[in-house]
Amino acid sequence: MLKIRKLVIGISGGVDSAVTSLFLKNKGYNVEGVFMQNWDIRDETGVCKSDEDYKDASVICEKLGIPLLRVNFVKQYWNEVFCDLLKEYETGHTPNPDVLCNRYVKFDAFYHYAREDLNADAIATGHYARTNFGPYLEYYKPNEDVHLLKAMDERKDQTLFLCQVKQKALRKTMFPLGNYMKTEVKKIAMDNGLEEIAKKKESMGICFIGTRDFPNFISEYVNNKPGNFIDIESGVTVGTHKGIHQWTLGQRSNIEGQPIAYFTVQKDVKTNNIYVARGTHHPSLFTDLLYTAHPHWIHSRPPELENGDLLECDFKFQHVEEFIGCQVYESNKGLIVLLEKTRRAITPGQFAVFYKGEECLGSAKIIQGGPSLFTLNCGRNVSNAWRYKEKLFNNFINNNERRICTM
């Protein structure tokens, strides 16, 4: 067990970090709180959301008797998260800033600040996650790496957002909420004089955008390049848009004057054209094959891949979606992932996250989805789509390289 003389917790001003702080105090730890200032630009109403959150964090710490520091990580967030986000949008991808924030800010910049500047023995957060080292590092082993495990509350489980965190920080991080349901956490807050925090509306979406309209926000940083909306079936232009950075795959395209709703299927960076399809369940939105960049394995590279075999595990790339079985092959350029059934709007820039049982194995950034059902059934005139995809997948394995299939 790790001897902990001092513990530093990241306090956001929300109920999760508040109850986590309460648990740590009740355990008798010497606790110090840090409020991370990651964004310092006010929205169009003149409000900086972090100022409001800091006030709530101060209330929490005052009630619990915990000293609180406000630490500026704006430079790290800008360089490691926001600049990457802009590059992704410029290339037609849709990034996940929460994953990058955890990797580069909360479990890197904050971790090193806590350990090196505040002399902390470990850190704690209000994430809904678990590790095999226990919620309070009671099973810590100095010579072993740690496994990241799903939270008990499946709906609130946040391991997907921790899928790029490195071992160094994860080994010395406490996740006291991993064995609790969200409803329990709110009740604990209510029972301990934190009613206002418990009733606070949970933050959703990208933190630095707040209540602003996303297309207007992103256009402040990425130049608009107008293009056409093109019907993927007919090839006919059905509308215009201000830039591919304002749209993501699977999103309703809001094209005026059309009797049936169109949805974004594919983006062409060279022409700035967006291909769209009629209906949210159009076959061009579905595929069961995808390609990724090189993976980040949280504990270690799975033994199946070490042996050159296929890894059979579970997959997801969005927090709210269900897990789906998959087969993973590792080439010299990344991963090739074949899903057990089709998934809608596989989105470049997002992270393919892999699980085996309770464990989050790791993740890899999605580079491109494979051929859609529309392409397989219509464009290629293939009678048995599944057999074709299986053949395609086997060809990749035999050639030991990733070949990008386009729509």
From TrEMBL:
Q: Which residues form the tRNA-specific 2-thiouridylase MnmA-like central domain?
A: 216-278
The cellular component terms of Gene Ontology attached to this UniProt record, alphabetical and capped at eight, are: mitochondrion
Q: Which GO terms describe its biological process?
A: tRNA wobble position uridine thiolation
Alphabetically, the GO molecular function entries are: ATP binding; tRNA binding; tRNA-5-taurinomethyluridine 2-sulfurtransferase
**What is this enzyme's catalytic activity, as reactions?**
5-taurinomethyluridine(34) in tRNA + S-sulfanyl-L-cysteinyl-[protein] + AH2 + ATP = 5-taurinomethyl-2-thiouridine(34) in tRNA + L-cysteinyl-[protein] + A + AMP + diphosphate + H(+)
The keyword NADP appears for this protein? no
State the compartments where it is located: Mitochondrion
- Supply the enzyme class, top level: transferase
tRNA-specific 2-thiouridylase MnmA-like C-terminal domain: residues covered: 288-366
SUPFAM superfamilies, alphabetized: Adenine nucleotide alpha hydrolases-like
- EC number assigned by the record: 2.8.1.14
Q: Which UniProt keywords apply?
A: ATP-binding, Disulfide bond, Nucleotide-binding, RNA-binding, Transferase, tRNA processing, tRNA-binding
Against Pfam families, the record matches this protein to: tRNA_Me_trans (PF03054), tRNA_Me_trans_C (PF20258), tRNA_Me_trans_M (PF20259)
User: What's the domain of life for this entry?
Assistant: Eukaryota
NCBIfam families reported in the protein's UniProt record: PRK00143.1, trmU
Q: Identify its protein family.
A: Belongs to the MnmA/TRMU family.
Summarize the protein's role.
Answer: Catalyzes the 2-thiolation of uridine at the wobble position (U34) of mitochondrial tRNA(Lys), tRNA(Glu) and tRNA(Gln). Required for the formation of 5-taurinomethyl-2-thiouridine (tm5s2U) of mitochondrial tRNA(Lys), tRNA(Glu), and tRNA(Gln) at the wobble position. ATP is required to activate the C2 atom of the wobble base.
What protein is this chain from?
tRNA-5-taurinomethyluridine 2-sulfurtransferase
Organism encoding this protein: Photinus pyralis
